[in-house]
């Protein structure tokens, strides 16, 4: 009888152990910063991190645009888009010290590859360069595509056995392609109106901002160990 119970229990024990081991290697996260991204566009962005071993992991992330803070009076393109990235990480201090057990706070460095795609309706106020007494409001469509890489620096903080916080920053480069639809503003003949940084931010929606540019990002993820 004991032998029979042993034969029956052992497979289930190995199965449960394997399941626990597998689950402890996964972290599901919500990118809280992307919910309120006013620089590009907001997305509901979810990521999953898989620990390969105590020192290395892979984090994959996908976000979809469900809303837009910009509500123009005249719609040319309905706001929609997505963001996705793939990141390889090394938990640096654990690796340098050959430490297996995690501390409450673990610093990591990663290489992130990303791709983004979005379209929306934008507007700007402008006047002809030869007659600034005339002012116009131009509504136009903007299609954006961007791909690139970031060197990521972050800290994975264990609030409890299950909950983690993950602040991060990233530096890199991206190739940005912008296409404008039904735009009347002409860079050669017109000037963008607005005080302070308004013209600068308005140009980010224009084709003239296409090309290779420096990229900076920062944010906070909230995670749950499965």
Describe this structure in words.
This protein is of the alpha+beta class and 226 residues long. The chain has a single domain (27-225), classed as Porin, CATH 2.40.160. It contains 3 helices and 9 strands; from the N terminus they run H-E-E-E-E-H-E-E-E-E-H-E. It has an 8-stranded antiparallel β-barrel with strand order 1-2-3-4-5-6-7-9. The two termini are 36 Å apart. Keywords: Signal. Residues 1-18 form the signal peptide. InterPro entries: DUF3575.
Strand order of the largest sheet: 1-2-3-4-5-6-7-9
What's the CATH C level? Mainly Beta
Number of helices: 3
The number of E-state strands comes to 9
Q: Specify Rg, calculated over alpha carbons.
A: 24 Å
CATH domain topology: Porin
Q: In angstroms, what separates the terminal alpha carbons?
A: 36 Å
Pfam family, one: DUF3575
Protein name: DUF3575 domain-containing protein
Signal peptide: 1-18
Keywords: Signal
Concise description?
By secondary structure, the protein is α+β, with helices and mostly antiparallel strands. It has a single domain (27-225), classed as Porin, CATH 2.40.160.
